[in-house]
């Protein structure tokens, strides 16, 4: 199993252990890491490598957000990166208590990539047509992404598990 962590995070896969398919042919990604997991799965296919399952946990979904929203996020990051990331994590755990996380030094380029990422339905359909099982997990209390938009979008191509009271980390308490 290959796992990709969320924006500014590392070693966060333990939050998803109850959902992770631990097969050698499973690729998983959380939030921003979902885009990296997709990219890896595509590369594996291109190189005739086996991928059975692609699991996306709270995949970033900002394609429905306004340019103003994205600009505000970028300006907040530029102004005070440490405070921005602290608030980001606090909101990601809402409505439950924040837990300890390991971080790496996230860049402005990564934040811009995250905010501007647009999921391509054709690309996802292609992966599914090649036999990859696509699973998406969304929390009903997620205050980071557009959960309604993500659910509507991914239902077209994936098995979507909607966890009513879960936050961005898919926690329910």
In short:
This protein has helices spanning 32-46, 67-79, 81-93, 108-116, 121-129, 147-154, and strands spanning 2-4, 9-10, 26-30, 53-57, 102-103, 133-139, 159-163. The chain is of the alpha/beta class.
| CA-atom Rg in angstroms | 15 Å
- Class in CATH? Alpha Beta
Low confidence ranges: none
Strand order of the largest sheet: 1-3-4-6-7
Estimate the helix proportion, in percent. 25-40%
Q: Based on the coordinates given, report the CATH architecture.
A: 3-Layer(aba) Sandwich
Q: What general form does the structure show?
A: globular
In total, the number of domains comes to 1
Described by its quaternary structure, the protein is single chain
Total strand segments = 7
Q: How do the helices and strands line up, and which of them pair or pack?
A:
Layout: E1 2-4, E2 9-10, E3 26-30, H1 32-46, E4 53-57, H2 67-79, H3 81-93, E5 102-103, H4 108-116, H5 121-129, E6 133-139, H6 147-154, E7 159-163
Parallel strand pairs: 1-3, 3-4, 4-6, 6-7
Antiparallel strand pairs: 2-5
Helix pairs in contact: 2-3, 2-4
Tag the structure with descriptive keywords:
globular, alpha/beta, two-stranded antiparallel sheet, 7 strands, Rossmann fold, single chain, 173 residues, 5-stranded parallel sheet
Characterise this structure.
With 173 residues, the chain is α/β, with parallel strands linked by helices. The protein has one domain: Rossmann fold (3-Layer(aba) Sandwich), CATH 3.40.50. It has 6 helices and 7 strands, in the order βββαβααβααβαβ. It has a 5-stranded parallel beta sheet with strand order 1-3-4-6-7, covered by helices on one side. Strand 3, helix 1 and strand 4 form a beta-alpha-beta unit. Helix 2 packs across helix 3 and helix 2 packs antiparallel against helix 4. The longest helix has 15 residues. The mean pLDDT is 96.
């Amino acid at each position: 199993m290959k796992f990709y962590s969320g924006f500014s995070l590392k070693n966060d896969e333990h939050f998803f252990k109850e959902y992770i398919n631990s097969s050698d042919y499973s690729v998983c990604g959380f939030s921003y890491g979902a885009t990296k997991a997709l990219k890896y799965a595509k590369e594996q296919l291109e190189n005739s490598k086996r991928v059975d399952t692609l699991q996306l946990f709270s995949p970033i979904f900002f394609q429905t957000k306004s340019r103003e929203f994205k600009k505000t996020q970028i300006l907040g990051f530029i102004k005070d990166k440490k405070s921005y990331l602290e608030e980001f994590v606090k909101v990601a755990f809402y409505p439950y208590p924040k837990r300890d996380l390991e971080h790496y030094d996230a860049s402005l380029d990564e934040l811009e990539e995250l905010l501007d990422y647009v999921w391509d339905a054709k690309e996802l359909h292609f992966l599914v047509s090649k036999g990859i099982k696509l699973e998406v997990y969304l929390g009903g209390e997620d205050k980071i992404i557009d959960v309604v938009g993500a659910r509507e979008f991914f239902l077209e191509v994936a098995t979507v598990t909607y966890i009513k009271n879960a936050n961005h980390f898919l926690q329910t308490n």
